[in-house]
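Students often ask why inverse folding is considered easier than folding. One informal answer: many sequences map to the same fold, so there is more than one right answer. In these notes we will look at a single instance of the problem. The structure comes first.
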């Protein structure tokens, strides 16, 4: 850690934050020495990164596989039109912007798809892992690595006008699989592309996550949120689900049985570039059964034609032609790039 980060002059910028009794000078010093891995730098991730860098987190590693599109600017607060013109990956653009906000924070951009082969390395030296992703596959990977390494993490998700968040302290609180044992099958859950998303709910959920991060990093564990919080800004709902007892009452395959199915590569999607076809195939290791009627409803309004029979569902979006099969397998035609194909799959099919 750079010595100047904790000098009196560098602490001046945090003076208002340090006046808050929950932080103080000691808490600020702890923040300055902390290391965080942020998984995903889209809507939630950009808000989280912005808050934590301004708060003085010592080191922040930002991991994201995607690039910036015009439709991102409605809610992804670290990006602007210049970033699109420069054709920057999200992680790189975020770090470029954040360095202008607080040059004292050590920032690392990792342009990569988080999977079972790299998540351990990305999280191993972190004091905290934060969820800025848009899919449950990565969240279960985060959960596996957090439980295995005994590291805290904060889950968050938003769609439409509602979102939810919970804080996980392995061995102390329920883990994600205690509360949500399995991810929704592909096509059964709405995505930002099919249901839209309002920026206010993004800012609210991400701010909850950032506040939890500050509690954990300053050592104020007694103040953490122990519930699953659900908020809908359109219907004016706020619910708190009491989940603490699940830690002792659920036979969780992860934190009780110490099975790390996503980390071991037993769960999740596989990708294959289809030679000569300008296409990528995505295959799920575990069999699933898609409901094409429900998936077609989610895809309505995209401007393209959706057709399906009992064998397959087809739709065109952006420059891609997508064919989805009942077992969750999909072929994304229009790119040989695996990361781009996975992004299309996550955006429109939702897993």
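Output (designed amino acids):
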């Amino acid at each position: 850690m750079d010595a100047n980060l904790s000098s009196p002059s560098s602490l001046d910028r945090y003076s208002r934050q340090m006046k808050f009794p929950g932080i103080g000078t000691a808490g600020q010093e702890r923040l300055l020495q902390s290391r965080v891995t942020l998984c995903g730098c889209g809507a939630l991730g950009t808000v989280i990164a912005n808050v934590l860098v301004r708060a003085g987190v010592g080191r922040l590693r930002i991991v994201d596989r995607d690039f910036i599109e015009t439709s991102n600017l409605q809610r992804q607060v670290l990006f602007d039109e210049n970033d699109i013109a420069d054709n920057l990956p999200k992680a790189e653009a975020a770090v470029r912007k954040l360095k202008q906000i607080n040059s004292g924070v050590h920032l690392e951009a990792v342009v990569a798809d988080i999977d079972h082969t790299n998540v351990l390395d990305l999280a191993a030296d972190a004091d905290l892992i934060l969820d800025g992703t848009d899919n449950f596959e990565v969240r279960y990977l985060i959960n596996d690595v957090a439980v295995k390494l005994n590291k805290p993490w904060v889950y968050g998700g938003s769609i439409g006008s509602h979102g939810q968040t919970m804080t996980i302290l392995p061995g102390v609180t329920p883990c994600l699989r205690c509360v949500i044992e399995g991810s929704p099958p592909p096509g059964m859950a709405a995505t930002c592309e099919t249901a839209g998303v309002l920026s206010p709910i993004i800012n609210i959920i991400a701010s909850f996550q950032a506040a939890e991060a500050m509690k954990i990093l300053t050592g104020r564990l007694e103040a953490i949120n122990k519930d699953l919080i659900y908020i809908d800004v359109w219907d004016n709902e706020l619910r708190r689900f009491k989940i603490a007892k699940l830690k002792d009452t659920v036979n969780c395959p992860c934190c009780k049985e110490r099975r790390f199915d996503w980390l071991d590569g037993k769960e999740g999607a596989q990708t294959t570039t289809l030679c000569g076809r300008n296409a990528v195939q995505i295959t799920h290791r575990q069999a699933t059964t898609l409901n094409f009627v429900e998936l077609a409803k989610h895809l309505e309004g995209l401007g393209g034609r959706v057709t399906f029979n009992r064998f397959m569902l087809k739709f065109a979006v952006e420059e891609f032609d997508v064919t989805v099969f009942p077992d969750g397998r999909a072929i994304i035609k229009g790119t040989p790039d695996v990361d781009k194909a996975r992004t299309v799959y996550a955006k429109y099919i939702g897993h």
